[in-house]
């Protein structure tokens, strides 16, 4: 009789351990899925912020080129080579 009780309690403990292991595995899977979602959201946010940064940098470079081009237009004169050491300059007397 004592042997039967010991055999049944070991079996019950094994069943309880199996249920606990299943619950722990399910919890681990849920935590892993939540972490994967947060990681994917983080990558998406970084990608969006990076593309916005590149867009603003492109706009800044375009604006910088536009400002430089306008500033240089007033200082540039046109010159034509007529041959040898002869050059004719245009626009040097048209100061704004």
Describe the structure.
There is one protein chain. The chain is mainly alpha-helical and 96 residues long. The protein has one domain (2-90). It has one helix and two strands. The chain has one helix at residues 2-73; strands at residues 78-83, 86-90. The chain is rod-shaped and about 115 Å long.
Describe the structure concisely for a colleague.
With 96 residues, the protein is mainly alpha-helical.
Which structural class do the helices and strands define?
mainly alpha
Strand order of the largest sheet: 1-2
Report, as a whole number of angstroms, the end-to-end distance: 115 Å
Helical amount: over 70%
Gyration radius from CA atoms, angstroms: 39 Å
Major sheet attributes? 2 strands, antiparallel
Helix-strand layout with pairing:
Elements: H1 2-73, E1 78-83, E2 86-90
Antiparallel strand pairs: 1-2
Which terms summarize this structure?
1 helix; 96 residues; mainly alpha; single chain
């Amino acid at each position: 009789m004592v042997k039967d009780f010991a055999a049944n309690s070991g079996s019950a403990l094994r069943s309880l351990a199996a249920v606990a292991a299943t619950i722990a595995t399910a919890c681990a899977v849920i935590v892993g899925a939540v972490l994967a979602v947060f990681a994917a959201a983080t990558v998406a946010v970084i990608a969006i912020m990076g593309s916005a940064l590149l867009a603003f940098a492109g706009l800044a470079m375009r604006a910088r080129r536009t400002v430089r081009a306008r500033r240089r237009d007033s200082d540039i004169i046109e010159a034509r080579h007529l041959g040898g050491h002869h050059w004719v300059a245009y626009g040097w007397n048209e100061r704004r």
